[in-house]
Amino acid sequence: MTSALAVYLVLLVGVPAQLVVGPLGAAGSPAMLFGFGCFAWWFVARMDRRMGLAGGVQPLRWSAAIFGAVMLCSYVVAALRVTDYSELRSADRSFLRLLSWVGVMLLTADGIDSRAKLDLLLRRMAQAGGALAALGLVQFFLGIEIATFIKVPGLVANDAAQLIQERSSFRRVAGTASHPIEFGVVLSMLFPIALHCALHETGRVQGVTATRRS
């Protein structure tokens, strides 16, 4: 399970946000498509307990169900009132994103069944955040849009996103995100996790020390 979630992290952080599967448009990013797979995996696994997902009461399932129901009601109201079909397409994309995010969330909530797996996932999230931050530093200090050099076979640029923006002679970088604000929010969310891993990663430090002494 942690390996699948690690793949999702790589797709989410390592592939620039503007690269998508051409015919699918904005809904065709690799991370979003993988999220759909996570939702399908979770749904099938809920039908077959032998696939290893946790049972019992899970508050996140109820939270996801309530939030999804609210979003579905909002979508139906928007579809009934819409006069511009471009707005409806935007609502379609938002609902698909929600489905993808919920799939990853539920698979994580029911699939991570031990503290060791959780710690491993947190370390991988911290590593992904570190890589993203390093890319942002290169963009900020050197002014090079490194993310534009990332090419993935089968994917095309959905828009010509400007990953480095200028405001008052100050570079605002986006890393592989779609906007500098998104970039900053993601790093802000990952920073406490990285700090936790740095403060509590005692096992690996002790192992390295013991190896050096031997």
**Strand runs, count:** 4
Mean of residue pLDDT values: 84
The neighbouring-strand order within the major sheet is 1-2
Helical residue percent band: 55-70%
Radius of gyration: 20 Å
* Shape verdict: globular
Distance between the termini: 35 Å
Structure description:
The protein has 214 residues and is mostly helical. It has one domain. It has seven helices and four strands, in the order αβααααβββαα. The chain has helices at residues 2-14, 30-47, 59-81, 85-111, 115-142, 180-200, 202-213; strands at 19-21, 155-157, 164-167, 170-173. Strands 1-2 form a two-stranded antiparallel sheet. Strands 3-4 form a two-stranded antiparallel sheet. The radius of gyration is 20 Å and the shape is globular. The two termini are 35 Å apart.
Layout: helices, strands, pairs:
Elements: H1 2-14, E1 19-21, H2 30-47, H3 59-81, H4 85-111, H5 115-142, E2 155-157, E3 164-167, E4 170-173, H6 180-200, H7 202-213
Antiparallel strand pairs: 1-2, 3-4
Structure summary:
The protein is mainly α and 214 residues long. The chain has helices spanning 2-14, 30-47, 59-81, 85-111, 115-142, 180-200, 202-213, and strands at residues 19-21, 155-157, 164-167, 170-173. The radius of gyration is 20 Å and the shape is globular.
Descriptive tags:
mainly alpha; 66% helix; two-stranded antiparallel sheet; 214 residues
